[in-house]
TrEMBL record:
Keyword match DNA-binding: no
InterPro entries the record matches: ARM-like, ARM-type_fold, HEAT_type_2, PPP4R4
Originating species: Bison bison bison
Cross-referenced PANTHER family: PROTEIN PHOSPHATASE 4 REGULATORY SUBUNIT 4 PPP4R4, SERINE_THREONINE-PROTEIN PHOSPHATASE 4 REGULATORY SUBUNIT 4
Gene: PPP4R4
Name of this protein: Serine/threonine-protein phosphatase 4 regulatory subunit 4
Start-end of Low complexity biased regions: 794-812
């Protein structure tokens, strides 16, 4: 609404701006275009696409004529709005192409030569989009025929510039014969125009024209024009000719490249340092494509000269002394330095292409020093660009990737978070190449020769955490999930896993906390020491699930969701099922609400009949929520959750056809968890032989006797076309898959990268129908948990499969207890405590 005091409107002005509310949209638009103010007319034109969708016939009949009248005297804002609206109507397909051409095309053509360059360009963009859909006859009569006169020297420069761009678009709509007869004469005329702006503009359209007329006409008509334009007195024309030649290299054969194009390119490069810096910027940007297109026709001397030229561009501007104060540098020098930075940035962008140019085998001799300079460039944009290209460089070097280990450390330690953010996009792939030396069959982890990697990774995370760029921090934590693939389990445990806990407990950004939680779960999944795994599980339950802060308890539920996704169903049921459903009694409504959303996934981890007792406890907790919940929002979610749980089908211990793939995937996860424990035991046997390490020969004999190969399959399959036995720890197939190595299990078993875990969809199959009655609720079926129940296991316990004789809250299949937790729940309340009755787990 208009504020009369703010605009100081007189009663007459208020009356003039007032519109009858009973008018329809069409009538209001007609009225405002006829008698309203410019701002009201602009608003109507902006709303034109909506009117066309609502009532196209009436809009064309009544509103569009008023729009034409208004545009004759319209200002810049209304013209720009009209150009956008006309384009939107075309894209919306509110009317047929024929109707659009009849109603709108003449309006567009009329305003192409508007005196304001911005308006003219806006209408031109609309016309170029319209040309894509118009039929040939309409294009010939309405656009091409008038263009003959518009392209003449007698017309304005603006008219001839518009003609160049229209000709470039029209070539894709006509056949080669029509182009040769009707369009190419105009093209030649405009290439010879007296104004350098027109020659340059037409030169840039020759690429589109060449694609429309084919190879033969391009060689006979377009190439001679380009060669002539490359010698033009105008630098912008020469630059346009050079860029067009580079883009068209694939069209020309070897003879044309060597005899015609190569001399032009050589001349252009030789003169580039004497010309304007803008030419160097373009040349540096296209140099990679140029070397690729001319590869194979260079003589050894020419090859060397182009390589030296590239090296010179990579250090352009770095030789100058910068000891003076920046505020005292003349503006023209500052502008020149900015252009030099752009040149070096373009060189970094083209670095992978130059590796191909020199052959990766010659990288160390020919390009390593240049790569070093780019990674240590004083300007952030250069280092940012080379960080983006780092993965491509690593792939090209293959087995020679070890040559750039130090540069990886340098970029990880870069003071700019932009550089770090660019590098970590492909950090898992880079580290994988580093760890295998670029050879997919290599089993030995080669990062042991790079001791600075772990400190650099930890420092990078701390630097990201200390900044305000939480998205970079989140991304970095997500990428750290690849670390089990490349460094040892102990290094992860002591240098990264504890840090994930700290972030989950103290960071204030929810996405960062969730990223840390998921990465911690992956670290736990591939941790090779049972004692460390139990300690992590204990911390998760005590510090998060039973934490004083409700915020920590919410994060515990997030962690449970990741556990369900990453681990086997039996693992979740054994360690996290009871601590999770205990939170149905949480004093904070938000925690109970979040748990209700998680309950279907919790139920999906159960199998009947082995987990019937856990199902009963889950049903008991849900009944208790239904009967005792006082928060109306939580109660509404509980009721919806009960219906969803009731519809879920039960997953059985035996394989079912409908759950076949999901059950196989879960069985494979469980198999791998057991395999970790067996490998731990075998490594202990290898290391303990009368108090000294076992000899390789003795260990190899034991390995052969056990029929255990030295490596696991490289890819952990999503589903396995076969069935594993009910006791996978003793089956021959499992023993054939064991991995014996000193660094980390996941170099092979985790080769599918942590991304494979993303593909593991949480099984939604489960359980029998709920009967949410409170009858049969027995107090004797409830148990309680205490902090004493979660003490760390004895270090001398046997390395069985997450043995239940530890003090962890094991809810192994076959036990039949339920939870009756009593806890406080504000954000700063006392720790949640309960007692855990001793129970035995069935094997």
């Amino acid at each position: 609404m208009l504020n009369c005091e703010t605009f100081s409107l007189t009663p007459e002005e208020i009356e003039r701006l007032t519109v009858d509310e009973d008018l329809s949209d069409i009538e209001r638009a007609v009225y405002l275009l006829s008698a309203g103010q410019d701002i009201q007319g602009t608003s109507v034109i902006a709303n034109l696409p909506f009117l066309m969708r609502q009532n196209p016939a009436e809009t064309l009949r009544r509103v569009l004529p008023k729009v034409r009248e208004a545009l004759h005297v319209a200002g810049v804002e209304m013209q720009l709005t009209a150009a956008v609206s006309f384009l939107t109507i075309l894209q919306d397909e509110s009317v047929s192409v024929h109707t659009y051409a009849h109603s709108f095309l003449q309006v567009i053509l009329l305003h192409l030569e508007h005196r304001d360059a911005g308006v003219s360009n806006a209408w031109l963009e609309t016309l170029l989009s319209v040309i894509e859909v118009l039929p040939k006859d309409t294009l010939r009569h309405e656009i091409l025929n008038p263009l003959v006169s518009k392209a003449q020297l007698s017309q304005t420069v603006q008219s001839r510039l518009v003609s160049c761009k229209i000709l470039g678009k029209l070539t894709n709509k006509f056949d080669a014969l029509a182009i040769k007869r009707e369009i190419l004469p105009l093209v030649k005329s405009l290439c010879q125009d007296v104004e350098y702006e027109v020659r340059s503009c037409m030169c840039r359209q020759l690429e589109n024209i060449a694609q429309g007329i084919g190879t033969e006409l391009t060689k006979s008509v377009v190439l001679p024009e380009l060669i002539e334009l490359s010698r033009d007195e105008g630098s912008s024309v020469r630059l346009a000719a050079f860029e067009t030649l580079v883009n068209l290299l694939d069209i020309f054969d070897t003879d044309d490249r060597s005899q015609t194009i190569l001399p032009v390119v050589k001349s252009f490069c030789e003169k580039s340092f004497k010309a304007d810096e803008s030419i160097l910027i373009s040349l540096s940007f296209h140099l990679g494509k140029l070397c690729h297109g001319l590869y194979g026709i260079f003589t050894p001397d020419q090859h060397l000269r182009f390589l030296e030229f590239y090296k010179k561009l990579c250090t352009l501007g770095l030789q100058q002394e910068n000891g003076h104060n920046e505020n005292q540098i003349p503006p023209q020098i500052l502008e020149q330095e900015k252009k030099y930075i752009s040149v070096r940035k373009n060189c970094a962008y083209n670095f992978p292409a130059m590796i191909v140019f020199v052959d990766p085998k010659n990288f160390h001799m020919e390009l390593y020093s240049t790569f070093f300079c780019l990674c240590h460039d004083p300007e952030v944009p250069v280092r940012y660009t080379i960080a983006i290209c780092f993965y491509e460089v690593s792939k090209l070097l293959n087995s020679g990737v070890y040559l750039i280990h130090k540069e990886l450390i340098t970029l990880l330690q870069d003071e700019s978070l932009e550089v770090l953010d660019a590098l970590i996009d492909h950090l898992p792939e880079i580290l994988e190449l580093m760890s295998t030396g670029g050879e997919s069959s290599v089993q030995e982890n080669k990062l042991s020769s790079l001791p600075d990697l772990v400190p650099a990774l930890t420092a990078a995370e701390q630097r990201a955490a200390a900044s305000l760029k939480w998205r970079t921090h989140e991304k970095l934590l997500q990428k750290y999930a690849c670390l089990p693939q490349v460094i040892s389990s102990d290094q992860i445990y002591y240098r990264f896993l504890q840090r994930m806990f700290t972030i989950m407990m103290t960071n204030n950004v929810l996405p960062v906390q969730k990223a840390a939680s998921r990465t911690l779960c992956i670290f736990l999944r591939y941790n090779r020491k049972q004692e460390q795994r139990h300690e992590v599980i204990q911390k998760l339950i005590e510090q998060l699930g039973q934490g004083k802060s409700y915020w920590n308890r919410l994060r515990f539920l997030d962690t449970c969701e990741f556990i369900i996704e990453i681990f086997s169903k039996s693992f979740f049921c054994k360690y996290f099922f009871l601590p999770a459903i205990e939170l149905t009694h949480d004093p904070v409504a938000n925690v109970r609400m979040k748990l209700c959303y998680l309950l279907p996934k919790v139920k999906s981890t159960l199998k009947i009949p082995a987990d019937k007792h856990l199902l009963q406890q889950l049903e008991m907790c849900v009944r208790k929520l239904l009967c005792q919940e006082k928060d109306k929002d939580v109660l509404a979610i509980v009721k919806r959750t009960v219906l969803e749980l009731d519809r879920m089908e039960m997953s059985m211990d035996a394989f079912q056809k409908k759950f076949y793939e999901k059950d196989l995937l879960d069985q494979e996860k469980e198999r791998e968890e057991l395999l970790l424990l067996e490998m731990e035991q075998l490594e202990k046997e290898k290391q303990q032989n009368d108090g000294r390490p076992m000899s390789d020969k003795t260990f190899e004999k034991k390995r052969r006797d056990s029929k255990i190969p030295t490596s696991l399959p490289k890819n952990i399959p999503i589903s396995v076309p076969g069935s594993s036995s009910a006791t996978p720890s003793t089956s021959k197939e499992i023993k054939k898959s064991k991995l014996i190595r000193s660094q980390s299990f996941n170099n092979q078993a985790f080769h599918a990268k942590y991304g494979n875990l993303d593909k593991c969809t949480t099984s939604k199959s489960s359980t029998a129908a709920y009967t949410p009655s409170v009858s049969g609720l027995s107090k004797t079926s409830m148990i309680s948990l205490t902090d004493d129940s979660f003490r760390m296991r004895n270090t001398n316990s046997a390395p069985s499969s997450f043995s239940s004789n530890t003090s962890l809250p094991s809810t192994s299949r076959g036990t039949g207890n339920s939870v009756d937790p009593k806890s406080s729940g504000s954000k700063d309340t006392q720790p949640r405590k309960a007692t855990l009755k001793s129970r035995k787990s069935n094997p």
